[in-house]
Fold these 2 entries.
Entry 1:
Amino acid sequence: MPLNPARHDPAWQGRLGIALVAVVLLKPLLWATEFKPGLLFEPGALRVMGGFLRSFVPPAHGAAFLGQVARETWATVAMATAGVTLALLLAVPLTLLGTRALSVSALRGRMAALPFAVRQLVRLLLIVLRSVPELVWALVFVRVVGLGPAAGVLAIALTYAGMLGKVYAEILESGDAQVTQTLLRNGAGRLQAFAYGLLPQNAAELTSYTVYRWECAIRSSVVLGFVGAGGLGQLMDGSLKMFAGGEVLTMLVIFVGLVALADRASAALRRGLG
């Protein structure tokens, strides 16, 4: 029976071929990682997981514990916010130095040797900053400044500066550079060209990505707590070691609420700038 042209995808053969190639390539990767999902459903594993999940009920709700959780939650949000703020202070100037659209010498077609070298060094620095996970930076700073949120702030600042700088530069270079080039040709400085040329047309995308990174920083700050960077993660680490499942569940619920609030804030900002 011939296929109905209205319901037939003319590219199905190519897509099927890509899917088969993906499966063939994925199989050795699963072997390399010893991925065996069947182990999760063995009787012993199910018994251990069931016992662990049962320890979560009921959630802890004592007044003293909730007060401690509130303090550590505030420390977590403060760590993420301060870390992203410091990352912005690092990322913005690096972005201005590394963006080709703001190069005066590039107006003639080919960037001069010195600006080109500076741009490559800036991009290399951004690669180094974002290549080192914030968890590694936190382990380093815990030894330098001691236990507490300060190590987490510095770790988030360095890693996220690399991430923000890279994406900011890509966003700015992907936009329409005609206004910026006109400003530069007429004697405007780099900051003026950025403020009146690139920033207005890319403000919404830059803000959206920054708020998304702040949301990611909240999640990272919890993970950093497990290596002594303070906040909700350090409190959760102690509860896990004491097998206090009810306390862990309470903190997980609060953490989910934090991420949900960050998501709503991001959506509100996008609507305001849209």
Entry 2:
Amino acid sequence: MGMIKTAKEIKEITIMADMLTELILKSISWVKPGISTGELDRMIENEMKLMGVTGPCKGYHGFPCVSCLSVNSSVTHGIPDSRLLQDGDILDIDLVIERNGFFADCSRTIAVGNISAEAQRLITVTEECLFKGIKAAVPGNTLGDIGFAIQSHAESNGYSVVREYCGHFIGLEMHESPSVTNYGTPGTGEVLKPGMIFCIEPMINQGRRAITDRNWVTKTRDGKLSSRCEHMVLITEDGNKILTKHF
């Protein structure tokens, strides 16, 4: 897929991003202690049908659900099931939608009920990392500049950055190359140009960056919390435009 999207493609992808913004805000409103992640996924899938979009995560290499719902120490790819959310949990809602060959993707970690100050700080710093990365996403900068901005902010706050998973270009496929890592060296990697659309999605751990993978689900190896948030960003002639707007 071309890294530079046409004006028509940008228009269609932007429409999808607006729809996904609506969906993720509804999904967030449904979260409460006592609801299961499986029930939440079913509600999301039903809403997708009402909106006339599909959830391409379902069936992707055997993944069973339309949403990835990652709780507490789960970094990414949490599989919705009968687990009931508890007061004090943190939950990452990661959604992808598709219609007519155009894709949108975003995520946000939220509090379930009342959470600890430590958990809230992790969520807040992760969101700050996202916007540090977005600030670096301007024409003439590089993907390495984005990664460096995210990594620097996370590590200066005592957190670690997951390196095995990262952001990606998007629009005509769910995942397009190149990768958008959450660590890097300034001035390295692909130079950013107007018309590029990609997801910036820092995954920040409370403890060490080491992870474990089992049956899709990725967790922190030390069992500490992990937080993630994600926006789709369009590079413009004079800066960027955030296409998803769940903040």
